């Protein structure tokens, strides 16, 4: 099955590295913590997911590891500003 | 000062406590639980079994977090609710008065009544201590048998297989999860299990567990065949814990019946989570499910009502994303029906609503491992199963949950050989531009 290219995760990843941020859908999250466990710089992604808030943390590399490891599709990249606010949740 | 007492420290109870605190900074909030670990990610136990995560990560809140929010967590077993005196009696004699009470006692695994169930090595996956027991047994075992259905059975099967055990999975009839998945979906799961080295046994009923010196050594099937093993896991379903509610005179069916405000009908007492049987506007019935997010949302709404903020709980289409034999699978709304001989009622991560399929046309498309099945009603999509590629997971979640009128694409969607995926994506993209979240 071939899906449109603009919807592929790879395309999304490249886009996010340029101007993206990680956004949770908390209706999918079961608080397992795999996202936080795998974050290479220790951001508590799970806490963002619980609160339904984007990972607006200036340290976030948008490396996509949390998105890739989440077994339930909670996290996705969305276009956003590189110049993020100072809010850092649960880090 | 109002005292809110919550029986249960799972997600419904914790969510209720946080909701009460969000609107009443001065309230006294007491949570009572019997599990030593108190609040943890119950669905995360599957990832503990599969070695994807260490134990310590399964705790979203630490003791200091409860303290910081003014939530008192008590270790105890509630033996009796006295609705007339508005008090609870704990084992050991302690009595706690309440102004508002939430019963969020969850559900417990059902175990079959078979000879040998008391042998060491016979397990279930209900809570943290069960997961630890399975891991201990897996370290020294070589062969395991898993009996049951739904998500929990596969979590155990896959966890044990990943840890190098030779796993035998017993099914009572001819396929896996027959009242939720269709035959093609069952076969995909079964094929992947075989590929992982799991041996499937169809039409297999356990007659007795066999043991030596108090330890399980195998089991005997109804046909007389024997299987040797050092671990037998049962995952044949769960039932709400209703003992307290029954003795307190709450209105019961399969769970604690509640109205849209999560009230039980007995003054000052509410219920939420796996123990509660809530009204489902889509089917017009009160149903049970065992899903994390609805439990969280029910807890939140119950908490707001307990704190005096009248708020209705509107149940949405039952939804879960899980892994079946390593394949990410989204299940939404009504997709199946009939009976599954492997489960008594529902399992964890499961909903009665999934088995409630009214008149609908099934549209499907699949490759070897990716499969999409969409149940098309007269004006809306009623349910869907998305296996493997999850591109359609979010679009279908939104279209089904929001009950979007799909009349403009219905004819094209149900046309045989139609491009189901492309049509759904086109339709969803258009809908989202005008109606979706900004």
Q: Can you tell me about this structure?
A:
The complex is a heterodimer of chains A (91) and B (438). Chain A has one domain (5-79): 2-Layer Sandwich (Alpha-Beta Plaits). Chain A contains 4 helices and 2 strands. Residues 81-91 of chain A have low confidence and may be disordered. Chain A has 91 residues and is an alpha+beta fold. In chain A, strands 1-2 form a two-stranded antiparallel sheet. Helices cover 31% and strands 11% of the residues of chain A. Chain B has 438 residues and is α/β, with parallel strands linked by helices. Chain B has 3 domains: 3-108 and 239-306, FAD/NAD(P)-binding domain (3-Layer(bba) Sandwich), CATH 3.50.50; 111-236, FAD/NAD(P)-binding domain, CATH 3.50.50; 319-435, Enolase-like, domain 1, CATH 3.30.390. Chain B has helices at 11-23, 45-49, 63-68, 128-140, 150-162, 183-195, 243-247, 292-306, 393-401, 407-414, 420-435, and strands spanning 3-7, 28-33, 71-75, 78-82, 87-90, 95-97, 100-103, 107-109, 122-123, 143-148, 166-170, 199-201, 206-212, 215-221, 226-228, 231-235, 238-240, 256-257, 269-271, 276-280, 285-287, 319-324, 327-333, 361-366, 371-376, 381-387. In chain B, the strands form 7 sheets. In chain B, strands 3-2-1-7-19 form a 5-stranded parallel beta sheet. In chain B, strands 9-16-10-11-12 form a 5-stranded parallel beta sheet. Chain B is globular and about 65 Å long.
What labels would you give this structure?
heterodimer, A: 91 residues, alpha+beta, Alpha-Beta Plaits, two-stranded antiparallel sheet, 11% strand, globular, disordered C terminus, B: 438 residues, alpha/beta, FAD/NAD(P)-binding domain, Enolase-like, domain 1, 5-stranded parallel beta sheet, 11 helices, 26 strands
- Architecture (CATH level 2) name of the largest domain in chain B: 3-Layer(bba) Sandwich
**Main sheet of chain B: which strands, in order across?**
3-2-1-7-19
CATH topology of the largest domain in chain B: FAD/NAD(P)-binding domain
Shape of chain B: globular
């Amino acid at each position: 099955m071939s899906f449109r290219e603009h919807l592929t995760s790879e395309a999304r990843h490249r886009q996010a590295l340029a101007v993206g941020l990680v956004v949770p859908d908390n209706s999918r999250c079961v608080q397992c913590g795999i996202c936080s466990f795998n974050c290479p710089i220790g951001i508590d992604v799970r806490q963002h997911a619980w609160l339904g808030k984007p990972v607006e943390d200036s340290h976030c590399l948008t490396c996509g590891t949390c998105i890739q490891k989440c077994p339930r599709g909670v996290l996705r990249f969305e276009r956003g500003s590189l110049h993020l606010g100072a809010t850092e949740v649960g880090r | 000062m109002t005292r809110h007492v919550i029986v249960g420290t799972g997600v419904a109870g914790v969510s209720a406590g946080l909701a009460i605190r969000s609107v009443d900074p001065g309230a006294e909030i007491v949570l009572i639980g019997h599990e030593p670990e108190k609040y943890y990610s119950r669905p995360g136990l599957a990832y503990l079994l599969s070695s994807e995560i260490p134990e310590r990560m399964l705790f979203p809140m630490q003791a200091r977090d409860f303290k910081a929010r003014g939530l008192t967590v008590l270790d105890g077993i509630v033996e009796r609710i006295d609705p007339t005196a508005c008090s609870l009696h704990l084992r050991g004699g302690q009595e706690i008065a309440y102004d508002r009470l939430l019963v969020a006692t969850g559900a417990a695994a059902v175990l079959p009544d078979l000879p040998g169930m008391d042998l060491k090595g016979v397990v279930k996956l209900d809570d943290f201590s069960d997961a630890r027991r399975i891991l201990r047994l897996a370290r020294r075992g070589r062969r395991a048998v898993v009996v049951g259905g739904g998500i929990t059975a596969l979590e155990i099967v896959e966890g044990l297989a990943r840890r190098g055990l030779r796993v035998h999975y017993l099914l009572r009839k001819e396929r896996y999860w027959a009242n939720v998945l269709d035959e093609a979906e069952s076969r995909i799961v079964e094929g992947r299990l075989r590929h992982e080295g799991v041996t499937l046994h169809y039409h297999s009923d356990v007659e007795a567990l066999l043991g030596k010196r108090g330890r399980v050594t195998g089991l005997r099937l109804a046909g007389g065949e024997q299987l040797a093993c050092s671990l037998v896991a049962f995952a044949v379903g769960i039932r709400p814990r209703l003992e307290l509610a029954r003795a307190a005179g709450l209105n019961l069916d399969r769970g604690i019946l509640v109205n849209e405000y999560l009230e039980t009908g007995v003054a000052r007492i509410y219920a939420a989570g796996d123990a509660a049987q809530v009204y489902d506007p889509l089917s017009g019935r009160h149903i049970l499910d065992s899903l994390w997010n609805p439990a969280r949302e029910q807890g939140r709404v119950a908490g707001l009502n307990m704190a005096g903020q009248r708020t209705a709980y509107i149940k949405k289409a039952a939804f879960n994303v899980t892994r079946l034999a390593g394949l990410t699978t989204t299940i939404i709304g009504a997709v199946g029906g009939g009976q599954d001989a492997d489960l008594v009622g529902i399992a964890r991560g499961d909903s009665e609503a999934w088995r409630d399929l009214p008149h609908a046309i099934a549209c499907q498309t699949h490759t070897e491992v990716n499969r999409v099945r969409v149940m098309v009603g007269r004006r809306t999509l009623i349910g869907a199963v998305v296996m493997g590629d999850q591109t359609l997971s979010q679009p279908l979640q939104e279209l089904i949950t929001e009950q979007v009128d799909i009349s403009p694409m219905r004819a094209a969607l149900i046309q045989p050989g139609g491009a189901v995926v492309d049509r759904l994506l086109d339709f969803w993209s258009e809908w989202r531009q005008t109606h979706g979240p900004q």
